[in-house]
């Protein structure tokens, strides 16, 4: 699959690490861990429009769409800097746990969950007063050196990468409790939520892979091999793609979320049985029809039209030859006599 080429390179501060997109302003906020600052890039011009000083060694960044604010985790100063995206100035600094690393914005309850890697916990900041409301509590499960975090709006849970535990921690947003852990790859680092497929993508820096977790089952469904030491990860809802930053190979792997491979089973695969061919059905012999005696059709009585009786001619009685001859002689004699009488009369 072909992807767009690099169109430009933007110079920012030293050792840029976390990145967040501000959809309200069309700006990108980049945490520069080596220069304790945040660079703000305009997405129309791809140029840095402002640089904001924050705490020590900023890493994770989260955008709060409800307040138009950017939360920056200062891992070196145990704090979170809050930047207003209208003024591009820090409006508050909130003290949290040791080594804050990643952050996720909970749009349902208007709070930011910050992973405190140094104390294997998480701080919950309310965006209504920009103060820590509570810390994540254990509900039979614990976080172990948490790094990246992502909020799942579909299940109202926050997923945090337990880098030291090769797992993904689940924090319920209603109770702020760690309600479960999901095994993933080695040294999980970054986390991204795919709202299209309702999946969580986790970069495993120690195993050069990305684990894909279903939020309906809270279990890993597959693993995708990527470049060396993958760290950052982001979901592109427009293309249904996941972008993975491979810090060890200076590359970005692009994963299509609709065509993920099926995970290779650890157990020896059961050989696929050769399908028994479906027997060709023996054609049912066509039964030789027993000749059904043709019923003697009862002839439809033909109505014989009564013929109009032809009048029988009056039969001339047959006379014997002698009688005929006699009759002939008589007739001849009569005729002859008549002729004689006529002649005689004529003389007179």
Overall description:
This protein is mostly beta strands and 348 residues long. Among the domains are: 8-95, Thrombin, subunit H (Beta Barrel); 118-263, Methylamine Dehydrogenase, Chain H. 8% of the residues lie in helices and 43% in strands. The chain has one helix spanning 321-347, and strands at 16-22, 27-32, 37-42, 47-53, 58-64, 69-74, 79-84, 89-95, 100-106, 111-116, 121-126, 131-135, 137-138, 146-152, 157-162, 167-172, 177-183, 188-194, 199-204, 209-214, 219-225, 230-236, 241-246, 251-256. The strands form six sheets. A five-stranded mixed sheet has the order 13-17-16-15-14, with no helix packed on it. The chain starts with 15 loop residues before the first strand and ends with a helix. Residues 263-269 and 279-319 have low confidence and may be disordered.
Full CATH superfamily name of one domain = YVTN repeat-like/Quinoprotein amine dehydrogenase
Count of separate DSSP helical elements:
1
Would you report the number of β strands? 24
What's the CATH class of one domain, please?
Mainly Beta
End-to-end CA span: 154 Å
Largest sheet: 5 strands, mixed
Low-confidence stretches: 263-269, 279-319
Mean pLDDT: 81
Structural class: mainly beta
| Percentage of residues in helical conformation | under 10%
Radius of gyration: 55 Å
DSSP strand (E) fraction?
35-45%
What is the element string, with H for helices and E for strands? Answer: EEEEEEEEEEEEEEEEEEEEEEEEH
Shape: rod-shaped
CATH architecture of one domain: 7 Propeller
Under CATH, the topology of one domain can be stated as Methylamine Dehydrogenase, Chain H
Q: What's the arrangement of strands in the largest beta sheet?
A: 13-17-16-15-14
């Amino acid at each position: 699959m072909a992807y767009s080429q690099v169109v430009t390179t933007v110079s920012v501060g030293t050792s840029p690490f976390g990145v967040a997109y501000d959809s309200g302003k069309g700006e990108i906020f980049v945490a520069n861990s080596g220069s304790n600052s945040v660079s703000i890039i305009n997405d129309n011009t791809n140029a840095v429009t402002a640089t904001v000083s924050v705490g020590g060694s900023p890493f994770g960044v989260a955008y709060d769409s409800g307040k138009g604010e950017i939360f920056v985790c200062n891992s070196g100063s145990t704090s979170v800097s809050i930047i207003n995206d209208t003024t591009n100035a820090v409006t508050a600094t909130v003290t949290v746990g040791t080594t804050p690393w990643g952050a996720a914005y909970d749009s349902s309850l208007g709070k930011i969950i910050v992973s405190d890697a140094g104390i294997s916990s998480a701080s919950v900041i309310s965006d209504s007063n920009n103060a820590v409301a509570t810390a994540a509590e254990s509900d039979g499960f614990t976080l172990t050196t948490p790094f990246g975090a992502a909020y799942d709006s579909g299940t109202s849970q926050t997923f945090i990468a337990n880098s030291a535990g090769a797992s993904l921690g689940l924090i319920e947003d209603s109770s702020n409790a760690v309600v479960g852990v999901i095994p993933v790859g080695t040294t999980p680092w970054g986390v991204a939520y795919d709202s299209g497929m309702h999946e969580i993508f986790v970069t495993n820096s120690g195993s050069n892979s990305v684990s894909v977790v279903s939020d309906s089952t809270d279990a890993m469904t597959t693993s995708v091999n990527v470049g060396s030491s993958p760290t950052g990860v982001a979901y592109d809802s427009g293309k249904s793609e996941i972008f993975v930053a491979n810090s060890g190979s200076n590359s970005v792997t692009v994963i299509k979320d609709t065509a993920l491979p099926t995970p290779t089973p650890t157990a020896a695969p059961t050989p696929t049985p050769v399908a028994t061919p479906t027997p060709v059905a023996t054609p049912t012999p066509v039964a030789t029809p027993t000749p059904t005696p043709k019923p003697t059709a009862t002839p439809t009585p033909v109505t014989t039209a009564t013929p109009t009786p032809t009048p029988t001619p009056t039969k001339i009685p047959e006379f014997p030859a002698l009688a005929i001859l006699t009759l002939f002689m008589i007739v001849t004699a009569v005729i002859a006599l008549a002729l004689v009488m006529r002649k005689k009369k004529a003389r007179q």
